[in-house]
Write a structure and sequence with these properties.
Blueprint (H helix, E strand, L loop, with lengths): L8 E5 L4 H12 L3 E6 L3 H12 L4 E5 L5 H15 L4 E4 L14 H29 L2 E5 L3 H4 L5 H20 L6 E7 L5 H8 L4 H10 L10 H12 L11 E4 L12
Parallel strand pairs: 1-2, 1-4, 2-3, 4-5, 5-6, 6-7
Helix pairs in contact: 1-9, 3-4, 4-6
The protein binds nicotinamide-adenine-dinucleotide (NAD).
Length: 261
């Protein structure tokens, strides 16, 4: 299936590790050009070195996304270098455990800065370019937006707002032919998830308990499976009439009856 993404320029925030890395790889496999925007952690540097060695069309812009000026500069960099932008994948974020009792208003606000405000900033600054290309936005949210988790008010608020903004932007951007959708993962093994599991008292037992509760196949979702949905939603040829959708890719974890697991 040709997704029609050849030579399209796609920005993936946090696109150098975990789910974002898988999305970058999926876009590159479709012969798109990818711009990764985010921190240059060790994982990201490894991916960057691999991309450079393979002469892949993948650029890296270091940015602390919590700073809106860095978001603006990143989009300006894309404009200067490519003169176009066809897709924006807002993906960077982390479940930071700022709870109602355990957090405080300042840390809650900081969590929104790390997890939510850059979704708006990136879309805002990218908008003129997306209007020119009639491009697409995909917001990576989380099942936490639908189920809650406990102890993570900032992250839950950010992830829920991303779903609301998906609908809001899909409505606002209809006249420009810009489609906006979101993908909700639940349990995907990534560097972030590994760090969280390793902090549990019995990491492997905890992981086994979680995977046993996932209805389809009793396994984690692969990052490549989130990426496949994302790249489909970016496709102007295959998902050209799909907008305002929040799609949960989680092996039935969020929606199926508990008695099935
Ligand atoms: N892994 C899961 O099971 C899971 C489940 C639900 C939702 N998600 C969502 O998927 C997305 C990706 O998660 P992941 O597990 O791949 O994470 P990850 O930490 O493995 O990768 C995310 C990348 O984004 C970067 N990043 C994060 N916040 C940033 C910021 N403020 N500025 C610059 N760079 C930043 C990180 O440094 C990292 O390179 C997040 O939005 C997360 O909430 C993940």
């Amino acid at each position: 299936m040709d997704l029609g993404l050849k030579d399209h320029v796609i920005v993936v925030t946090g696109g150098g590790a975990g789910i974002g890395e898988a999305i970058s790889r999926a876009c590159l496999a479709e012969q798109a050009r990818v711009v990764v925007v985010g921190r240059l952690s060790e994982n990201v540097k490894r991916f960057q070195a691999e991309m450079q060695a393979a002469h892949n069309r993948c650029e890296f812009i270091e940015a602390q996304l919590a700073d809106p000026q860095q978001c603006r500069k990143a989009v300006e960099g894309v404009q200067q270098h490519y003169g176009r932008l066809d897709g924006l994948v807002n993906n960077a974020g982390a479940n930071d455990g700022i709870g109602l009792a355990s957090g405080d208003p300042e840390r809650f606000t900081e969590s929104l800065r790390q997890n939510l405000l850059h979704y708006y900033a990136m879309a805002h600054y990218a908008l003129p370019l997306l209007k020119e290309s009639q491009g697409a936005i995909v917001n990576i949210s989380s099942k936490v937006a639908l189920t809650g988790q406990g102890g993570t008010s900032g992250y839950a608020a950010a992830k829920g707002a991303q779903l609301a903004l998906t609908r809001e932007w899909a409505a606002e951007l209809l006249p420009f032919g810009i489609r906006v959708n979101s993908v909700l993962p639940a349990e995907v093994m990534t560097p972030l998830y590994r760090r969280w599991i390793d902090k549990q008292d019995q990491p492997e037992t905890t992981l086994k308990k979680i995977t046993e509760r996932i209805p389809l196949g009793h396994r984690m979702t692969e990052a490549s499976e989130i990426a496949a949905m994302t790249v489909f939603l970016l496709s102007p040829t295959q998902s050209g009439h799909t907008t305002a959708q929040n799609i949960v890719v989680d092996g039935g974890y969020t929606h199926l009856d508990r008695s099935l697991t």
